[in-house]
Amino acid sequence: MKADTIRWHQFSRRGDAVFLSLGHEIVILTLSVATLLLAAPQTAQAQTVTRVQAETSSPEEVLDEVEVTASRLPLSMQQTARIVNVLTRTQIENCPAQSVNDLLKYAASVDVRQRGGFGIQTDISINGGTHDQIVILLNGVYFSSPQTGHHSSDFPISIDDIERIEVLEGAASRVYGTSAFSGAINIVTRSHASGEQGNVARGSVGIQGGSFGTFGANGTIGFGTSDVSHQVSSGWTQTDGGTPNSDARKFRAFYQGDHRGASADLHWQMGVSRMDYGANTFYSGKYPNQYEENRRYTASVGAKTKGNVVFAPLLYFSRALDHYQLIKDTPTGENFHMTDIYGFSLNAYTDWALGTTSVGADLRNEGILSTSLGHVLADGQQVKVPGFAQHYTRRDNRTNVCYFLEHDIVLSQWTISVGAMANMNTGLDYRYRLYPGIDIGYRPSASWKFYASWNMAQRMPTFTDLYYQSPTQAGNVGLKPEKTSEFAVGGKWRTRGVDAELRLFHRHNRSMIDWVMTAADSVNGYTTYHAANFELNNMGGSLNATLLFRELFGEKAYLNRFSAQYSYLYQKRNDGKEIYASSYALDYLRHKVVLRLDTKVYDRLSATLSFRWQQRMGEYIRYTPVADGDGGVTYEAAKSAYHPYGLLDLRLQWAASRYDLYVEGNNLTDHRYYDIGNVRQPGFWLMAGGKWKF
To answer: pTM here?
Structure first.
């Protein structure tokens, strides 16, 4: 049956205008003459909508129509029943950051704890969770590590590759499966804009350098035809690190492509990352000279059909190689690991009279070969470590199966999304467990959006949680999976020149996993952290507001935008277990403030000034070296609290049609601070660079 036809006689800036066209054929009667002259005849209608929208709307309004992954059904930011925080391409280009992890520091709900620069040794968490409790995706493909969340941010991409970053706060197992315990981060890369450009290649080459012996180079090129496009990028960085034993060398390469067909679209990607670095006090402050080498290889291929029923299959694979030394260049505490992930997922959805129903399944196998993690292998089953004389002596493997069901109702003022995930993991047992959720969004006008959601989630322990043993760490094979039930409410207000949103949440957690120490473990400085379960609730909220000066005062305004973000968290323990010190879960951010001003300075010169202030709760074990009288060194251990700190960053950029130049300073006040135990962060860091575009 032919869809009803809606005739648009003029363009509307109403945020909910898109809903009027759902399920209908659209005929546009009033078009710009200049637009018609630019559009090719066969693509005039599609290109006209895009161009007119870009000419008549602000970036924030255009962003409302971008599809984000907050449900199993692709919905625009305006349609979705949850608020997704998006870092846009424009914000990324002007951000004083050198890595993907640095970008995430400017989201108030995200906690980024680094032991080194340029994304080395980084832990990322959301709203008081831990680095193991979020799912990280690259173009919607699962990227987290079952070995340890410490490795989940070993990205094969650079800032230049990114189109946007989507941050979904809150439990999301019914959307992303297990591990989406406190939220998810989806990194969407830029693709070559084929079609208009035909076979013309587009790309850039850039170099950068700065403080502490830092130097790097990046390059990217995109090419394609009207049906097929390709994008290739690569880069290399080295630095002395700015703190003892934080030197690093990093190489990465990434390729993605897509094919647009009459009945289906195909997309594929491959990535490689290699990092060698001084792992300053990685697992304990008693061992400051640790060292690590990481290798990561990823690949995926997927499709999306066209028609009344849409099918989206995806096949993906990832391999991570890890070489760790407790004392650099010695066999002391040396470990080797090889983690393989391969999986297949299928999502399908169709529209019918009562809304859109989607069903899906995901089968993911997680396996590890290791010298320390897993079950002991017999002599004949041991596997040689690639490139080394050692053998993997342990192994573990588990299969994770998820089934999804979701129904979405999208009306002019309401969005209702109800769904559930059924999960079975062979590492636990062969029982299926249900994790439901519901999201409700209400748009009383073009300016207002309110929402409420309730969702459950689960996380399996990592292989490190279960098995790792060292002089300072003790894993626990008896760990239970983490479970949570989260309720959230919020609202968003959008009017001319102003964008604001508020979110409040309460997360009831059971069997939380953390590496903790009791008082008995800290006697005479001989400390051991144990992986343990305990009961803990997180609650809090965030408030974000943006002033868009060019909407208020016109395009000639020198001030572009000013944003202010604030997040607050509170934790409450519900058990009587004694905890002397915590490695992760109890060291949360009570307060975080992020201020950012984007402005034009002169002609093509722009400036971005950013300020971050945060207060971390919890304490860490601080180690002080003391001479033992025999020419050696011992360590005195004592608890030390984290102290609040503020950082001021500035980026100046000259943007021309063929080249970009920039200089940026991080930590302009040269403040020395601790963001993770025993790792004193560097002071002022100056970087400069340029990029030639072709």
So the answer is: 0.88
